[in-house]
């Protein structure tokens, strides 16, 4: 019964937490610019994160290590510094974008500009982390985040051409604006295959005291949960493709355009649902990424760590998420556009993937950690192919976007 509860709650966690500022903005951009043509990177990214999440849970359950301390233990502290520094920088940008997402939702609700909300949002997130347990954060915010299923309802009500959606789920070449097409592909993949998600997942498995008896539950959580999350992201792209095109919008360049996806379907209540979806999902992601920064620091350097501990029992761990929130609130408070920051940080996430994923795959093939539970050839090939695709596209398109100023 306990494991069935873990499966159900894990699926709720995945559905409630999958859609955040990264997935929302990149899927909306893709739908507006290319309608259903970019359904395929959502499908590809979801497949990859299913594999990576299952691996991270299996690694934690069998070895009693998180990914971070496994990389440090297997490769040494000098090697660990490469993924460590890169992940911290990328996570800081993504955390800033998530704080921006909550701030934007509060601006939409109150009319007070989002810059003024950044610091209060960071302080609230700090207070929740300081006072709460891991289970309360994981399950509480994820249950609230279920309001994001309103995008699935909108996609069904809009009655898209499902044949065109199916065609978009198969990889294809751009029909126009190739540079923007491939940059959006990279951004969607970066939003789907965020290292903080599977790094956080392994830490959560240790927090919840998983052992080998949880391997079946882990497969169910990773497979069903992440697949449902991918459906939500795909629903955003469908809603954007139907609604924005109907209004002649082919480029989302302001976060004020985003509520239209639900307003066009549900009227005033669509506006309320959008604010609730954005605020709950982004606030949950803010807590998760701030915690992941602390997990990565503490596990990498062998400190005491755990959200279930009192702050006085692991002061360095608490100090890291405090500093992470304070630093990441600064760009939003300074007036940086959360939407542009989000899309660009997702592309940088794709660029940084190999530094985290490749050593992780080495761990997953190390019998000293996993014994007979090591990866199979198929799992390795799927993840390597998708990460390589993301990396190559990021190398090509990110410089083009910087030079082009878009």
From TrEMBL:
Transport listed as a keyword: yes
Keyword terms of this UniProt record: Membrane, Symport, Transmembrane, Transmembrane helix, Transport
Membrane topology: Multi-pass membrane protein
Pfam families named among the record's database cross-references: Nramp
Compartment(s) of residence: Membrane
Transmembrane region(s): 37-55, 75-96, 116-134, 141-159, 179-201, 221-248, 260-283, 316-336, 342-365, 377-402
Name under which the protein is recorded: Divalent metal cation transporter
Lineage, broadest ranks: Bacteria, Pseudomonadati, Pseudomonadota, Betaproteobacteria, Burkholderiales
